[in-house]
Amino acid sequence: MDDKLKILADLMFPDVTKTILDYEKMYPERDLKEGAIVSRFAPSPTGFVHMGSLLSAFEDNKVAKDTNGVFILRIEDTDQKRSVENGIVGILNDLKNFDIIPDEGMIDENNSVGNYGPYIQSERKEIYHTFAKSLVLRGLAYPCFCTSSELDETREIQELNKERIGYYGSFAKCRNIPVDEAINRIKNGEEFVVRLKSPGDFNKKIILHDLVRGDIEFPENDLDIVLIKSTDKLPTYHFAHLVDDHLMRVTHVMRGEEWIASFPIHDQLFSIFNFKKPNYAHLGLVMKIDESGTRRKLSKRKDPEASVEYYHQEGIPKEAVKLYLMTVANSNFEEWLDNNPSDDFSDFKFDFKKVSASGSLFDVLKLLNISKNYFGRQKASTIYDNLLVWTSEFDKEFHDLLVKYKDYSIKVFNIEREVEKPRKDYTSYKSIRNFVFYMYDELFKNPTYDTPKITDKKEIETILNTYYDEYLELNDKDLWFSKIKEMCDKLGYASNIKDYKKNPTNYKGNVSDVTGLIRVSLTSKMNTPDLFYIMELLGKDKIKERFTKYINTIK
Questions:
Q1: Is residue 465's pLDDT more than 90?
Q2: Which of 164, 195, 292, 552 could form a disulfide with 224 if both were Cys (CB 3.0 to 4.6 A apart)?
Q3: Which residues in 231-307 belong to E strands, given as ranges?
């Protein structure tokens, strides 16, 4: 070992007492079955999980579960400016809302599970310093004293001369400072960053074997990147992720395509330490088509649907969101779901080859359609239970009614449900109130009525009073409808639609017009689930009240 390099390394990292070998023993290879994937979701503690991040976490969790591997939640807070108070709790809550529970990592703001921690990067400073010190001892890292103004000046020269931008070659001014000089400058209190002394040759090529995109060729890295920052002595992302992924024994790194350009740096760092390299899968961005028809990245600032909290507030079932994410993640999932509609999606195996390299188009309408189908498969009692939870937080008035009328509410939700082709109205828990409000007197105080085909006030009063007094039948559906047809014949309306179409001038209207009037008077809506079951649940007294209310309203 070079004595001067040891003096320099000890001066740069005076508190380091361990070696890389010590940490290798502390964090041994995992005892997992062959093929088991160790993945990690590593957000910054901003307290906000956007849809792109949720998709990444979902995929990381999925590949680990599929292979009986390990899914890690690691908090990358080396950029302290981005951290917010309770940021970790916000992330954990968002993940928990979608049943994404890490096998290892943070479980609240201060506590974690697992034997490969700490799982917050700012708590791993000693580990990073140990690895950086080892590079200094090998002559592969050095202190850089360049100021911000000097770096800006270098950049301006590179731009003027149309050179590659970066700290490399002759532009790396501190790369070849004599060790004695570096020691003296540190002793004099000069601030410094720790830079990699890259052994790379930009004219040589390396290959990224990407699990999604196939082989991609790059020039070797020759940039002397910053490893440890000067102000807080925390590592940069490039260096921290190398150390963490190695010691946590991560096998697969799934990340956004914006990190593809950084691969040569990461590949070089793994090579320098002679560490086993993880498999990389670079995922396309989550996109949307805006009002102008432009395809752009889903934006936290512009798009409310970019926030995971949005789905909780809107009451879109987490199961529906998970199903949608799976369709985004793997192109063959929809076909699998069509063929296995009753199976749990955990039975579907994630396939890297079925991931779109071009990015995913986020389609809210498609998500809502999946949500409709999900609701269509649920029992009324399940919908009631989940709606009760959602309304307790977001709709207290409706919540109290659900508690007050539990059995009645379940019957309301069961209309047209236990049939071969169940009705698919609900897209979210938030939407349910608008579809059933008329079944609750407390919500039907001042309805806005749709306009039925029959609009003459006297005719309306005659039809509704005649129906209630002479033809109302709620004991049998077939008999109920035959009584309506019987009334139509008496009042001059065609009881048979075909007869009406043949000779429309012979009738005031048809049976559909009459049932439409009854429907509007009872619900205010022209389009509702099965009218017989609505009337059966309302009962005769309430039907009379609603008829009277409607007649008085149109007067």
A1: yes
A2: 195
A3: 252-256, 279-283, 286-289, 295-297
Helix (H, G, I), strand (E, B) or coil at 428: coil
Residue 2: count of CB within 10 angstroms of its CB: 12
Backbone angles phi, psi at 145, to 5 degrees: -105, 5
Q: Whole-angstrom Cα distance, residue 464 to residue 466?
A: 6
Closest CA to 180 of 13, 4, 6, 12: 4
pLDDT tens-digit map of 117-162: 999 999 999 999 999 999 999 999 999 999 999 999 999 999 999 9
Q: Which one, of 166, 227, 223, 240, lies nearest residue 195 by Cα? A: 227
Per the listing, tokens 């009334």 go with 487
In percent, how much of the chain has pLDDT > 90?
81
To the nearest 10°, the Cα dihedral for 83, 89, 95, 100? 120
Backbone CA torsion sign across 116, 118, 120, 122 = negative
Please name every residue paired with 72 in a beta bridge, in sequence order, or none if there are none: 40, 104
| pLDDT at residue 83 in the model | 57
Beta strands in 290-333 (DSSP E): 295-297
* The token pair that represents 339 in the structure block: 């063929």
Give all domains of the chain, ordered by start, each with its CATH number: 3-16+125-283 (3.40.50.620), 380-443 (no CATH), 457-554 (1.10.10.350)
* Contact yes or no for 493/460 (Cβ under 8 A): no
Question: Tokens in use for 528?
Answer: 């509702």
End-to-end, the C-alpha distance of the chain in Å comes to 101
Q: Which two tokens stand for residue 497?
A: 């639609």
Block residue for tokens 């934006």: 299
Supply the pLDDT for residue 467.
97
Instruction: Please give the pLDDT value at position 33.
Output: 96
DSSP 8-state secondary structure symbol assigned to residue 23: H
**Cis bond upstream, residue 504 (ω within 30):** no
- Express each pLDDT in 412-428 by its tens digit: 999 999 888 888 999 99
Q: Distance (Å, rounded) from C-alpha 363 to C-alpha 65?
A: 26
* Burial class of residue 549 in the structure, from the number of CB atoms within 10 Å of its CB (0-12 exposed, 13-18 middle, 19+ buried): middle
Give the number of residues written for the chain: 555
Q: How many helices and strands, by DSSP H and E, does the chain display?
A: 22, 16
Q: What are the tens digits of pLDDT across the range 186-205?
A: 999 999 999 999 999 999 99
- Per-residue pLDDT of 154-166, as tens digits, reads 999 999 999 999 9
Is the Cβ–Cβ distance between 426 and 375 less than 8 Å?
yes
d(CA 124, CA 132): 13
Plot region of 162 (φ>0 → left; ψ -120 to 50 → alpha; else → beta): left
Q: Which pLDDT band, with edges at 50, 70 and 90, does 82 fall under? A: low
Q: How far apart are CA 34 and CA 375, in angstroms?
A: 39
Q: Are 74 and 84 in contact (CB under 8 A)?
A: no
Distance CA 119, CA 248 (A): 9
